[in-house]
Amino acid sequence: xxxxxxxxxxxxxxxxxxxxxxxxxxxHVLRYWEQEFTQLRPMKRxxxxxxxxxxxxxxxxxxxxxxxxxxxxxxxxxxxxxxxxGDDRQFKSDDLPDDASLGAPDALGGAAVVGLExxxxxxxxxxxxxxxxxxxxxxxxAEAG
Length: 145
Fold this sequence. Notes:
Layout: E1 14-15, H1 16-23, H2 27-36, E2 43-45, E3 49-52, H3 54-69, H4 74-88, E4 103-105, E5 112-117, E6 123-125, H5 128-144
C-alpha cells in the first residue's frame, strides 16, 4: 500500500495537515505518534504549529508501514525504529579525520554526531552523504582561505 501514497513534494517544511495527506494518517494520530516515537519531533512555531521536514515525513511513512501494513504493535514498531537507528549509525569515531570538529563519539553506539542541538534538544545524526559534503566544503574553504 505504500506505493499508493502520493509523492512527497520538494519542500522544506510540511504542516501536520499536509503530512496527514501525504501519509494517509489523520493529524490526531500524528500527534499521538509524536508521544510514542521519540525520533518524531517536528519543529514547533507560533501557536504550537507543527512543521515537519522531509526526513520526518519519511519516518511517518515508515511508522505507518510498520503499524498498518506489517501489523506491529506500537511497542513493537517503537523497538523496530530504535533498532534501525542503531543500524543507520554507520560512522564510528575513528572514521573521522583527527582535525574534524564535526562530531564526537556518541555514548550509545560510537556514532559520529553533529554538535548542533535540534528542536527540543534532540541531536541529529549525519548521514554519509551529508558528512562527505560537509568535509568537501571544509576542504574548499581551507583552500580558499
